[in-house]
Amino acid sequence: MDFFNKFSETITNKSKDVANKAKEIAEVTSLTGKIATQENLIEKYYKEIGRFVYEHREEACDNGLEERFKLVDAAYEEIERLKSEIRKIKGVKLCESCKAEVPAEAAFCHKCGTAVPEEVPAEVEAEAVRDVTEAETVDEEAVEQVVEEAVEETVS
Ligand SMILES: [Zn+2]
User: Fold this and answer.
1) CA 97 to ligand 1 centroid distance, Å
2) How far apart are CA 60 and CA 119, in angstroms?
3) What's the CA gap between 134 and 142, in Å, rounded?
4) Is the pLDDT of residue 12 over 90?
5) What is the mean pLDDT of the chain?
6) Angle, vertex CA 119, rays to CA 113 and CA 120, nearest 5
7) Which member of 54, 82, 96, 144 has the greatest number of CB atoms within 10 A?
8) From the CA of 40, how far away is ligand 1's center (Å)?
9) Domain range annotation of the chain
10) Residue pLDDT, tens place only, 98-143
11) Average pLDDT of the residues in 48-63
């Protein structure tokens, strides 16, 4: 009887493990998709920066570029935040020295021996990034308008 109880307990734990693993995979897949979105945005901003520099090559003006630089910075920060979320799900942290993934409970990196502190939860920073991203979205339209006006001026 005891054996069967233990047996069914093991089965229950196993299926719980499987369910957790599936949830983990789904979360990591979703975060990986968000990272790809940020990387696509960065490519878009790079293109816009390139076009802006080209179209304003006669002037020594860099206003409008600053906005794009900030958007790229925010996208890179968001990618770092998403990566840290993935690490949290996987139960690992990053060695600052060699960028190896180290088990979350480890005090030292198994690869290079550097002391690895607890990873700072990215929640507070994330809020700031999201604020910046939202604020920049408005500016983005303003920048596009400036660019359009500049183009129109060039044409006429
Ligand atoms: Zn290391």
Assistant:
1) 5
2) 43
3) 13
4) no
5) 79
6) 145
7) 82
8) 30
9) 2-155
10) 999 999 999 999 999 999 988 765 554 455 555 544 444 445 555 5
11) 78
